[in-house]
UniProtKB/TrEMBL annotation:
Species in which this protein is naturally found: Nonomuraea zeae
Domain Acyl-CoA thioesterase-like N-terminal HotDog: 25-104
Lineage: Bacteria, Bacillati, Actinomycetota, Actinomycetes, Streptosporangiales
Superkingdom in the source lineage: Bacteria
Name of the protein this chain belongs to: Thioesterase family protein
Matching Pfam families: 4HBT_3, 4HBT_3C
Domain Acyl-CoA thioesterase-like C-terminal: 126-260
Length: 263
């Protein structure tokens, strides 16, 4: 069991309740990363359904949970021959923090009938760069859990030279050696800096709603994260992320709605 497996572990208490312990190592300056929180919820939801993989997840972030004990309450909605549906709620101190609707199924390794090309080209990995290591007082503990190597134009905002377009692109893998599985992918779809940074906006950008789909089980190796946005308006922005494995195959896709960063 890796550190990430332990940090997302869900222990069954009864038919519909799981105990979890939210790990402070996945903080982004205080709040816990949304992808990490989805992975915690999905551990419980998959265990409570008859299928192996979370193929579709919609999560609404009602209130930011804090590190420490919490529970996931799973309500099965329907189970058929090929898919099952459930509602999963992350509860802390008696308050619902995240509501999720999850569809599970069992994916097989098959050749796709059709597969499109990546939405953007990435330079070779040796031409990509890391972000500076955060200072301890920043509370950015998430960075230590994963490796991100960025396409340089998408992090021009670090030097006060944003590209002017909402975009973010990077290679991704866990710091502790671990082949990507659906729970790692849940983290990966929310691992990039908010795409509005490249449009010249900064600050914590809280996610309100995030939907992602597991499209295939990834091959070992680096993942490629391609993030973009379509509209920034009235304090809101959208972010789309596609995740491709080391073979170039699309393995996950996500879309979220978030608030423009504050502070």
């Amino acid at each position: 069991m890796t550190k990430f497996d332990e940090a997302t572990q869900a222990i069954r208490v009864d038919e519909n309740t799981y105990d979890v312990c939210l790990d402070p190592g996945y903080s982004i300056g205080g709040p816990l990363n949304g992808g990490y929180l989805m992975a915690v919820i999905l551990r419980a939801a998959v265990d409570a359904t008859p299928f192996e993989h979370p193929v579709s997840t919609t999560a609404q972030f009602l209130k930011a949970p804090v590190p420490g004990p919490a529970q996931v309450r799973v309500e099965p909605l329907k189970a058929g021959r090929t898919a099952a549906f459930a509602r999963a709620t992350l509860v802390q101190d008696g308050t619902a923090k995240i509501e999720g609707l999850i569809t599970t199924a069992t994916l097989n390794e098959v050749e796709p009938v059709y597969a499109d090309a990546p939405s953007a080209a990435m330079p070779p990995i040796e031409e990509c760069v890391k972000l500076p290591i955060p200072k301890p007082e920043s509370g950015m503990t998430l960075n230590a859990q994963m490796e991100l190597l960025f396409d340089p134009p998408t992090i021009g905002w670090l030097k006060g030279e944003p590209s002017g377009r909402p975009e973010s692109r990077a290679y991704f893998r866990m710091t502790e050696p671990q082949d990507a599985d659906p729970y790692v992918l849940a983290l990966a779809v929310d691992a990039l800096p908010p795409v509005v940074f490249s449009a010249g906006m900064r600050g914590w950008a809280p996610t309100v709603d995030l939907t992602w789909h597991l499209r295939a089980l990834p091959a070992p190796g680096w993942l490629t994260l391609l993030g973009s946005g379509r509209l920034i308006s009235d304090g809101w922005f959208d972010e789309e992320v596609e995740v491709r494995d080391s073979t170039g195959r699309l393995v996950a896709q996500a879309r979220q709605l978030a608030r423009v960063g504050r502070g």
